[in-house]
TrEMBL record:
Record-level Gene Ontology MF annotations: hydrolase activity
Protein name as it appears in the record: Amidohydrolase-related domain-containing protein
Gene3D superfamilies membership: Metal-dependent hydrolases (3.20.20.140)
Residue ranges of every copy of the Amidohydrolase-related domain listed in the record: 180-364
Pfam families per the UniProt record, alphabetical: Amidohydro_2
InterPro entries named in the record: Amidohydro-rel, Metal_Hydrolase
Length: 409
């Protein structure tokens, strides 16, 4: 990776584009409600860890050390403020004002929000976020949550029985999940779908689910509902069926399907989070646009390869801002640009829960984009005009076309 440092005034047109051109945040989550603002560990702004790894270790990362003065500046603290001082200040800061200052200089035009979280009662609805953007936010539907809702509705009437006839329930589920996905695909407020199968059973989605495997999966789901009163879809045959159905419906209605890939918390099986494992379904569902989330880090080059050889694969580079160090972020963007067509890159903050996560994601990614494209100009790989064009595509134009948003920057 080049070690060239591009001064802020070196390429003025590029700097203006990277820092101020309107952006479509193609993947994010809702903010916590005011009354829930302090319910979750604030270190989640700079780390996907949990437990002691979050409470004790995350503050010792370069990502945290970089974010601390940036957050201090946002909150009106001196650059020398500590992480604990930043945490204390933000808890006493007026929440509406904190949300406002986190968004006001980030030029986010619209947000595509995955709101199907476990703690939906603790977060604002999608429309609430429109006060911070020029255009209204759209929804990204998490398909595993849709499937779990349908399974609950089908299985709950049988909770008092000792046996379960899975054949008709499986048939009803197959019909119902397809109908529900079609309904979402036809909703103008829905921009696309998202699968978290990476967290559940891994990205090696099979093209076939055996009837025996589906029956066993359904029985296992039923036993969990009986014993724990909850449903969590984590059975390969059933999960693969849901994803394949999603890919079919999405292809018919030209809705992108986002896949969590790579970087995540400790609930993920890292080995099965490489986007290369999706290659079979990418080849088969050629009409369906695939969006690989989070730069697929640490499988960034694999993701770039897929985007370069399959016309239906796009690559998002959110979440590594601000979770990875500054040098790591530059390295990731350089790796993406090794093979990925610049018309296939999508920008996002992966903002979630805390307004500052949107702020840091936008601030760091815009500055890094300037540095990396500036280095390419310096090396003679690009002209400044080409770099500006790339910036506009990455931040706005590609997502606008892909998700059919029909917006004007």
């Amino acid at each position: 990776m080049s070690s060239i440092k591009i001064s802020d005034d070196k390429f003025p047109a590029l700097r203006a584009a990277t820092l101020t051109f309107p952006a479509i945040d193609n993947h994010a989550h809702p903010l916590l409600r005011k009354e829930s603002r302090n319910d979750l560990p604030y270190e989640g702004v700079i780390s996907e860890a949990s437990g002691q790894a979050l409470a004790k270790d995350a503050v010792h990362t370069l990502a945290c050390m970089r974010a601390t003065p940036q957050l201090a500046k946002l909150l009106g603290l001196p650059d020398t403020a500590t992480w604990e001082e930043v945490k204390a200040k933000r808890t006493e800061y007026d929440y509406e004002q904190l949300c406002k200052i986190s968004f006001e200089s980030m030029a986010i035009d619209t947000i595509l929000i995955d709101d199907d979280l476990d703690d939906r009662n603790a977060v604002y609805d999608i429309a609430w976020h429109d006060q911070f953007t020029k255009n209204k936010s759209r929804r990204i539907v998490r398909v595993e949550v849709v499937a779990e809702g349908i399974l609950r509705r089908l299985l709950e009437p049988h909770l008092m029985t000792d046996t379960l006839n899975v054949v008709p329930i499986l048939r009803d589920f197959t019909v119902a999940i397809r109908a529900a996905l079609i309904e979402h695909a036809q909703d103008p407020n829905v921009a696309g779908f998202k699968s978290i199968i990476c967290y559940r059973t891994g990205l090696d989605v099979s093209m076939y689910s055996s009837q025996a495997g589906l029956k066993f999966s359904l029985l296992d789901v039923f036993k969990m509902l009986q014993a724990e009163g909850k449903i969590r879809l984590a059975h390969k045959d059933l999960n693969d069926l849901v994803v394949r159905t999603t890919l079919e419906v999405a292809g018919e209605h030209q809705k992108p399907v986002q896949f969590h890939t790579g970087l995540g918390d400790n609930d993920i099986n890292l080995i099965f989070s490489s986007p290369a494992r999706l290659q079979q379904v990418i080849r088969h569902y050629t009409r369906t646009p695939f969006v690989l989330l989070h730069s697929s880090y640490p499988y960034t080059r694999e993701a770039g390869y897929l985007a370069s050889v399959y016309s239906n694969v796009y690559l998002d580079f959110g979440e590594v801002f601000p979770l990875v160090s500054a040098q790591g972020q530059k390295s990731i963007l350089h790796q993406l640009l090794e093979l990925t067509p610049t018309s296939k890159l999508l920008w996002s903050t992966d903002g979630h829960y805390w307004p500052e996560s949107y702020y840091l994601g936008a601030l760091q990614s815009r500055h890094t984009l300037y540095q990396v494209l500036g280095e390419s100009i310096e090396l003679g790989s690009l002209t400044e005009a080409q770099a500006v064009n790339i910036t506009e595509k990455v931040l706005f134009r590609t997502a606008n076309t892909l998700y059919g948003l029909d917006l004007t920057p």
